[in-house]
Amino acid sequence: MKSRVARSTAAKSLPVFVFPEELNFIAKDQRTHKRLLTIYNPYNFEINFQVLCNTPERYAVTNPHGTVKAHCCVDIVIKHKCAHSGPYNTSSKFKVEAYHGDKLLGSKVVASHLKDETNLPEPTSESLEFTRFSISSEHPSISIARSSTATTTAGHSVGVLPVIVTVVCLVLLFLPLEEDVFTSFPPYIRVSVNMKILAAYILGIMTILFVKT
Questions:
Q1: What's 47's domain CATH number?
Q2: H helix runs in the chain, sequence order
Q3: Which of the two residues, 207 and 115, has the higher pLDDT score?
Q4: Which residue range(s) make up the domain with 22?
Q5: Of 65, 83, 178, 197, which has the fewest CB atoms closer than 10 Å, so is most exposed?
Q6: DSSP-derived pairing of the beta strands 72-80 and 59-61
Q7: Is 68 helix (H, G, I), strand (E, B) or coil?
Q8: Are 54 and 131 a contacting pair, CB within 8 Å?
């Protein structure tokens, strides 16, 4: 089965799912100096990832590389080290690369903006030469591998509709792909990769909604 996965992934690149697709750091808002980036794995096999950046000296990233189990996700924290000193109104790029073994499956670019305050003109971009992060001893491994499920905080109420949407997204993520031949599920309840992409994206939005509730 693993050899079949390797052959199918070698034939074409697969989409990489991250949320959010853009990070905004506001110098005057201390709460925005750390951002959470979630890497999703909707596939039926384990993937490895690494996070690159074209301006790595400006950021501290917990666990810039690691593993995401099938149908799970990993949260990593990105801290802007120059939020107080600038340069302001500039843009950097992160690249999240996903691997199956030594084979590159695909990559996703995430824009990062540092602004002096909100509602300013579009930041200027830096060079697009990506560099690996070195793991700093002052930032312990705090990324959390968790199943792609959404929970609510005790004592807070969440509407029925978001819960229903979350359940539907989870069902779609756990259903087999259309081209998966190693499954007993009938074809009419298999889903496409595009449907899983949409479900993972909506699930990320729902997760943030539940966290803020």
A1: 2.60.40.10
A2: 2-11, 160-174, 193-212
A3: 115
A4: 2-147
A5: 178
A6: antiparallel
A7: strand
A8: yes
